[in-house]
Amino acid sequence: MISLVTGGCGFIGSHIVDRLLAEGHEVRVIDNFTTGRPENLKHQEGSPNLTIYQKDIRNREDIVPVFEGVDYVFHMAALADIVPSIQKPWEYYSSNVLGTYNVVECAREADIKKLVYAASSSCYGIPDSYPTDENADIRPQYPYALTKRLGEETVLHWGQVYNLPVITLRLFNVYGTRSRTSGTYGAVFGVFLAQKLAGKPFTVVGTGEQTRDFTYVTDVADAFYTAAMSDIVNETFNVGSGGTYSVNRLCELLGGEVTHIPKRPGEPDCTYANTEKIEKYLNWKAKVSLEEGVQKILENIDYWREAPVWTPDTIDTATKDWFKYLGDK
User: Fold this and answer.
1) Which of 1, 32, 262, 290 sits at 20 to 30 Å (Cα–Cα) from 58?
2) Helix (H, G, I), strand (E, B) or coil at 18
């Protein structure tokens, strides 16, 4: 089997590449290294079954040849994080929406067996009920969430109109080794790990009692592989841990002092996936507990030494546009 992973040098994508290689696939990766890092696949260097192409999914003509003969496509390439999506909406729209259009068109022309798309649970916005199921209202709160949702709609529409075999997976708060270390203020794990290495307090938003469905990255990679190999097509599934955990609990597990920063608009007090559908149709369930996952991260914490160390003052500066555009609504 030949599998193509867009964004395969990124956080989740690199773990999917590992899984595919372990299963005996020939793997092709497309990555423009905007957020992906070649180091994430350095341990696979020399593998005869891995080829990495430095290309941008926004350039369709450039990526067409990589799809030739491909059986499975794992579409992970996207720009992430909230604040830069507010500041640079075109970058996000062109990458996450138009880039996705290019990927599904290339996949359709290549007559692939299955495309699995990395959708985002941020499409639910602030849900009415928890755990949240796939039929919940779609309420994107910021451009990142909107562009990921539009990408998902594009994928599902190509499944509906052109019979492209697709599955979309709505991911909940993925964490684990190789998570992003960019200069953008973003996911809580990257922020906290850099702070821990620098001996700085964890910057906890609000009271820290808000909870998140922290899902370990190898479980997520397993969900992608399971979805691709299944007979199910044209469906959407939540991918979550089966639980929801407070930020305060995360701080306890990581071990360190805490300082509090203001609560932010557009963020839910809870994220919690209803995973009954994926358990029923794909027989998939997360295996790694939060305690186990945090331990795996702490064993590899040196990865985050190059990450920026955020303080309340630098976070305040970085999130001004967040409050400016999303506040008082």
Assistant:
1) 1
2) helix
CB 52 within 8 A of CB 4: no
User: Do the beta carbons of residue 138 and residue 178 sit within 8 Å?
Assistant: no
Catalytic-labelled residue, pool 92, 144, 175, 185? 144
- Contact call for residues 110 and 165 (beta carbons, < 8 A): no
Lookup result for tokens 């040196």: 302
Count, residues in the chain: 329
Please report where in the chains the tokens 């370990």 appear, as a residue.
216
Task: Respond yes or no on whether the N-terminal peptide bond of residue 131 is cis (omega within 30° of 0).
Answer: yes
Residue 82 dihedral angles phi and psi, to the nearest 5°: -80, -55
* Distance (Å) of CA 157 to CA 7, 152, 199, 256, 319: 22, 8, 48, 47, 35
> Is 144 annotated in the active site?
yes
181, two tokens = 């270390």
Question: Has this prediction a pTM greater than 0.90?
Answer: yes
How far, CA to CA in Å, does 5 sit from each of 108, 165, 202, 221? Answer: 16, 16, 34, 12
Per-residue pLDDT reduced to its tens digit, 190-230: 999 999 999 999 999 999 999 999 999 999 999 999 999 99
pLDDT tens readout for residues 110-168? 999 999 999 999 999 999 999 999 999 999 999 999 999 999 999 999 999 999 999 99
